Structures
1.
Amino acid sequence: MSITWRAAVAGLEAATALCVALNFAYFLHRALSAELSTRRAAAFVLALISLGTLAESVVVVGSLETNGFVPLAAPAAWVVVRAITLAGTGFISALILKALGGR
């Protein structure tokens, strides 16, 4: 994998990790403070999904740094797939920031 693709993947993963860390913290807070048990359960599930995505991003960045991780797909396809993950976590983060700003 060329240095350009490694840098692109590392940048996408770092941005994803930042967004998902915000999402995880928000959903964990909601899981611990929600009044209704159904909302607590929903927030817990979203926190768990966020934690999984965060772990995935950390593992990918770690693999890039330690052993020159080569994705199963072509580098361009890998970047597209990870960009979709970043878009999803980024939009969730935007919604969270909007909700926090409205309080």
2.
Amino acid sequence: MRAFLARGAVIAVSSVLIVSTAATSYAAGTQPTRTRTAHVASASDPDPLMRWKLALDLRSHPNLNPFPSYLGGDRVWSLRGSRTLQRDGDYPLLPSYSSTFGAAGLKAWHGTTPNCVKLPAVGANTTDKPVPLCSGIVPADAAFVVPAATHAPVVAWTSPFDGSVTISHDAINEVGGSCGAGVTYFVDLGTTPLATVSLASGHGTDLASISRDLNKGQTLYFVVEPQSAKGLACDMTQLQITIDAVEI
């Protein structure tokens, strides 16, 4: 029988990506254009407990893949790329690391498809100021993704426990510039779809929270696919997610 986590043992996960899209599956064509700066959680936040947050954790361990929380522990995060645009769970680790990914302060794992940078890519702005990348701007302290034409960037989070989690999506918005062709963002548990949202350039949305039971070793995948092969370097996407382990 499961016991609720004691205060100080709850785990949260935050991540940031970068997306380009105009209509969402929740309110097609109704979302206003907006851009948000990634929230940077810290030990001074209310009820800090134990947390996993993509942007903070990746900034703390940018040269590791997979990597743990900024506090250490299990290496629950991994940065991957799809072999095709089929979401089949077959996502190898991104092979290469750059400590200066297109600009000083940007650190990323990436594939081999040439563009203004090599794609697909998942990285983080390790500075406290916005940094230009290709046609767009990576917000301060944010994590980001950029898709390739036939390979999606994938952020994976593997549960280190048996228990229940809540995934909260604070914002998804496109920050890649006006030349983007749009992206679709997916949240999958293994190959089971949990959420989907499509956005056009310069648009953003909030998503409803998702609660799921997980077994140790099961993986959540956050996938960003291009809607077109045009303007890929412009399809940089910001994503904010918080995952709370509410029962273990």
